[in-house]
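Q: You know discrete backbone vocabularies at least as well as I do. I have my own habits and do not want them to colour yours. No explanation is needed for now; the record alone will do.
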Amino acid sequence: MSEIQGDGAAGRRGDDGPTGRQRDADPGAIATALAEIRGDARARWAALLAGAVVGLAVAWVHWYGFLFGGALVGLASKDLKRALAAGVGFGLLAWGVFVGLVATTGGLVGVVQYAEMGRLLYLSAGIPVGLSALGSLIRGVV
């Protein structure tokens, strides 16, 4: 009879008992914090702003910052569509900051020369927007 009931682990799993259900339903501290941020408009805007600032700081050092910043603003968004819009917005902000830096160092002549670069202009605009949008898709997972 004991061989039929198996290895004895069935009683210890607790998946069907009240303890197992509570453990399975516990979303974890990070998920709880994200749910609280997404539920409060003021906290969500603060998290979006903080994510954009941190993402820009990381992007200043390495291009991974576009992915990271997109993920941060995406995680603070309510749903996947808003996360994607926030990621595209972050990418446009990063590109705008880059154009602003070109304008401050090269003046109007520098901006005109930058605008005449053709494919490099498209790449410099597409990389931050595309990578930030890609990073924001983490909202679909978390």
